[in-house]
Specification:
By secondary structure, the chain is α+β, with helices and mostly antiparallel strands. 44% of the residues lie in helices and 13% in strands.
Length: 106
């Protein structure tokens, strides 16, 4: 008595986008990604849930926040430097301006 041959096992690639037909790799997902090969027929593709992004991390909002924080940081550093320069060299700068005014007035 002979036993019926077992159904061929469909082998998918590790990423799930290809399947082996015994001779070559065939796409397991349609070009528009709306259909998926299940080993016997094409079925509607379901969204594969990837790893969830941590809340508040990533995206355009986070990039805008980082950009604004960097801009404010640079603004604070420049303000501190200008204040220090004006406090230490204020009299010399006043002399320069008075010399310019005197030169333009003559």
């Amino acid at each position: 008595m002979s036993q019926p041959a077992p159904a061929p096992q469909t082998r998918f690639s590790d990423d799930g986008f290809w399947w082996w037909d015994g001779a070559s790799w065939k796409p397991a997902v349609s070009p528009d990604r709306l259909w998926r090969w299940n080993g016997q027929t094409w079925v509607p593709a379901q969204a594969v849930a990837g790893p969830a992004a941590p809340a508040g991390r990533g995206g355009a909002g986070f990039a805008v926040l980082i950009t604004a924080a960097a801009f404010l940081g640079v603004l604070v550093v420049v303000s501190i430097l200008v204040t220090i320069i004006l406090l230490t060299m204020g009299n010399q700068i006043a002399n320069v301006f008075s010399n310019v005014v005197a030169a333009l007035g003559s």
